[in-house]
Amino acid sequence: MKISGTYEIPTNSTTVFQLLTNPDVLERTVPGLKSLHLIEDNIYDADLEMGLPTVKGRYKGTVKLVDAVIGEHFRLIMEGQGPLGFVQADVLIKLEQISENQTKVDCEGEATIGGVVAGIGQRMISGVASFLMGQFFKAIRKEASKAENVGN
Amino acid sequence: MTTVSETKWVGRAIRRREDPRLLAGKGKYIGDITLPGTTYVHLVRSTHAHARIRNIDTTKAENYPGVVAVVTGEEVAAAMKPMLVPSIIPRLGGELQIPTVYPLAIDKVLWVGDPIVAIIAENKYIAEDAAQLVEIEYEPLPVLEDPEEALKSDSPKIHEDWKSNVLWHGELGDGDVEKAFREADYILSERFYGHRTGCAPLETRGAVASYDDFTGLTLYINSQRPHILRMALSQILNIPHDKVRVIAPKDVGGAFGTKAPIYREDLLICYLAMKLKRPVKWIENRMESLMTIGQERDQIHYLELAVRKDGKILGLRDRIIADVGDGRTGVYLGFVMPWLGAAYLTNAFDIPNVHIDLSCVVTNKPCLSPSRAFGEFPARFAMDYALHLVARELNLDPRDVFEKNIIKKFPYVTATGITHDSGDYVGAFKTLLEALDYDRVKQEQKEARKNGRLIGVGFAMGAEMSGIGSQVFVAMENQPGYGSATVKIDTHGMVQVLEGDSPQGQGHETTIAQAVADELGVNIDDIYISYGDTFATPFASGTLGNRGASYTVSAAVLACRKLKTKIQKIAAYLLGIESDSEEFIFANREVIWKKDNSKRVSLDDIADVAIMAPTKLPPGMEAGLEATAYFEANIASMLSIGVHGAVVEVNPKTGDYKILRYVVVDDCGVPINPMLVRGQVHGGVVMGIGNTRYEKYIYDEAGQPLCTTLMEYHMPSAADVPDIEVIEYNVPTPYTPLGTKGKGEGVPGPVPATLASAITDAIDRPGFKLLNLPLTPESIWRALNEDK
Amino acid sequence: MYPAPISEYFAPSTLEECLDLLDQYGNQAKILAGGQSLIPLLKLRMADAPIIIDINRVIELQEFGEKFLESGNRVLRIGALTRHKTLASHPLVLSKYPIISDAAKYIGDVQIRNRGTIGGSLVHADPAADLPVPILVLDSTLRLVSKDGERTFSADEFFLGLMMTVIEPNEILAHIDIPSPQPGTGAAYYKYSAVFGDFAIISIGARITLQDGICQSSRIYLGGVNPRPQRAVETEEFLNGKTITSEILQKATDVMVEEVIVESDMRASDTFRKVLLKQYGFDVLSKAVQRAKEEQI
Amino acid sequence: MHPLQDVQKPGVEGTKTIQVRVNGQIYKREVPIRMLLVDFLREELGLTGTHVGCSVEGRCGACTIVLNGNNVKSCLLLAVQADGADILTVEGLGEPDNLHPIQEGFWEKHGLQCGYCTPGMMMSVYNLLKVNPHPSVAEIREALVGNICRCTGYEHIIEAVQYAADRIAAMPKEERDKLFSY
Questions:
Q1: Which residues form a coiled coil (chain D) (predicted)?
Q2: Which value does ipTM take for this structure?
Q3: How far apart are CA D48 and CA D60, in angstroms?
């Protein structure tokens, strides 16, 4: 499944980059993320409860940040496995500062859902993915505003 | 005076004898069998289509209260031989690569649903709880979903020790194909695609196994072929044959081919019972069923027809690429169905010059398993729809093209070696056109078009196998094709028939009894039929491929006839008549001398003498009244014709279509019970409509099955299908004692070509073709908008 | 496929009891109404319910009938426990609100309609379900209650997105109020599905108020097309103020097809969904207009 | 891999005592709360005429029973929900020597082959004929949407329903009412 989305964050691209790659921020912002621990350079152990408020799956796996160029782009590679199956995502995140405190974030990638969820929820999965991305960037925008306020 | 005709049961549409128990809710299906101390199995299956297993952690599952055992692949494999023992490997020539198969995955999984861990618990709820606690680490491997991709030499190998991903490759055909194509006025060349769909019976698979050191292994399983399974279990599990008893329950909730193979789970359940020394029960849930069994028909035809301008087909070339999935299901290995589809490709048509090249390619999907219209479904679509396309291209009436090519002389052997025994295919075809009122429909079509309504008429044929004799079956499945039955008259003059087959709703208790009642001149209620228990029934290949009415009924008839010879001798002796054995009539439970009707002995008296008072038997005669017969027709194979026709209306804006009429003209030789034959045809057509329009096993690019519940795998309900009209056109075959032939197995086959040709006729636009199944409104809408 | 262990089961018979339980257990509890979606989710272990509150005995949730509000406005009040069967066949629905039976009578099958409830369906908020569209089209009001009090939402506010609504864990949907139609109003609903009774590939609901042949107001929602029933605002604007002719309805259908954002799934592609909307949009609008003339919504 | 902590602890299995009237007989049993009604009928009461075909969402309808006068899918109910309920299953429809006209119709018209869908199918027919004694073919087809049959193609089932409807119509009213007492 293709995933894509464009979001605007009210701060500069360096700050956005820092937010998006900071495990503490991610722990607060990624919907359903229960824990994130660094296990080696740019690789984290993750425990994730993914889904919608009424329908959820628990996944355990890793998050990797690769090809990172500060303030410009990075790739997020996620893998998780749980009783309901697995999730895999490989997303390229590109940042483009469009004004002093406005950055456009472009996400483009592939996600695979396997197991029970794939077999029954195909007509829902892309909806769930865009919901989760929306939730995430909403939270990041809050973080960005906080950062801006602190900065000011 | 009693005449034979008064006691005739064959041909009568009587109510079924199995129905009262089923109607009262007293049927005995596999799910209803629970032995004292039973444990329950749940299987943890792969969520990846292709991956290495890096680690399996079962600790938490093992510690879950109520769990009896947790078992993984290596343990099971160590206890048995690789499943594909020589006796269940088909011998069809060509090049075959055989995978190594054990019940549970070891190191690697090849499709979503591949079983990895078995949890055995005190109840089924607990088994599922514990399954949630098993942790498996996978290392994903590249997924091959497209057989044409998998064919490429640089593709990764699914079975790493193979030289390619081709499970079987071979060629079929005969004649001078090159010459036919040189002499053709027109060559049709198209790519036809049949999608992955199948039969999915309402009852899933299930097994209950028990084991003790003295009686050995007993396996209750809703198998179509208990004897074959028993033989395989003994060999694979290294248990003496006398210590393996397979019992198919009295009632099986439909099978349609899907319960014919030897599955990995069958072996697993037996192993678990042996390990635990407790009964083990496994009932497949629908989700695992939809991702494991009943998937068939998935193949591509590059079909070419060499045609004379009058519509006569001179030659045929086909390159078939079948997606057989992982190829690991016992007996069929996924390739027997496409092979049979190729062998039967020329259907009811006389095409002397044929060359077929068939490649059966493994992919990361479940192995194909047989599904009614076994192997024929996509082949019928390609062949019969191609004839309609030929007619359109040459501006001929498809009726004439069909008539010109239909087989007219019998027996007929196709270029692929299939023997058509007898029949009147042209007569059946003409009867269909009459029933459809073809000329009037064509006229109405013109009228309707003026009002903006698109009506079309289409038809197709299905020469379906009616059992296959040993000549073919031994090669095909390494098993005999004969029918077998034992007929016994018991101490009370009741007649017991034991058959080695194991029905799943076909009505053997009625049809076999009808045939036997006529032979022995008894009432149908005097007969009871036993089946399913391999310790009590004669060896047979199972209930599949329309064998029942062709082979099994014939065996029962022959057994009766053997018995009658003895009965007549006893009767003559008791009556004090000097007589040849053929001088008696069997009627009203009596044996009556033809020359003097007053000379008669009741069957009860004969049974009493033969069994209870052997001192009264003719001197030297052996006691008892029973006979076993193995029937083999004096011909390689028998086929029976079904001709399908439909009138449809298409909405060109959406591609949606409605079936206004669906008519089948059907030949089953002699119908033993016409009501049951009609039932078979209705059910086959509706399954065909389901497979053609509504049902598809969809996989995404990662090999994930997207149709794992009946919410996504759309079996049609009563509101989705039309009335089905059935017209009998029976020509008795000279190759069975009663002229009967099996019917029902192949009925779905002609449906896709029937509907595709009717829709094409309704659209009636040059260049419009429906080359890909399923025929959904969207696919038709696309075809309509692609050729613009 | 069996649910995970459930430790507590409550079957309150009054709303008060029910709200106490929700207050006490909130997040841990699942409300069981018809169970036609919840039980499958429990079997799949995609939903977790250590505690079940079975509301089938709660009298207050079973209201059904016309009612005058304090404001003096007349509404059709549908208690959350009202079964699809009632919505499909009740004389009051058939005579005055046929759009609701248009939708309810093809939900699943007889057994599902005998058991399934409107409350369950709306709270589950499946994008391809039948009832959200007519409830939205009729500008209904949904009343949520909890120990803390009551909250009232318009249907449009109620649905947040894919299987998500404003409802909080300690709340329950009590009833739906459907305002009495203005004179000259008609409404209709149509669903296209792969097999009979299945979830919508597309569904269309429309309400039109006519006066002297002129469209005074309209409301159009489309289901099955994306994560939440989508309102066709531009189509409504196009229709409002126009004299309704078959040509205008045809054009309105084009506007609708143009404005709607459609997603693909394995049941149908986005393009084909638009083909279906174009085919059936006109029919639904025409039927709404016809009913407006007959004063039936 | 690290353990998935709290969510995978076994939940506490609650039980409850229920009393149900099935086919006229009252049963009192303690059952796990999570037990599905179909398992209660089949495994606790031994009424195995009610079948399971789809395992998950109820699409197949083989588990259809009549509960408090309505046909419902017993795989979509917990047994505890049936506390106090009046249930009809196929076993209560007729006696082997005194079949219900619906059973007779299925027998006469060959409305079953493997018989697996039949009990659930007849429960839906029961509900149909109770409210609509003279259904049209289209009404029969729509009433049976919730019951999948894989064998018959539905043609003979429709004839069976028509046969039953005719038989019932020919009966005196009291007898008719007795046939539909659930």
A1: none
A2: 0.96
A3: 17
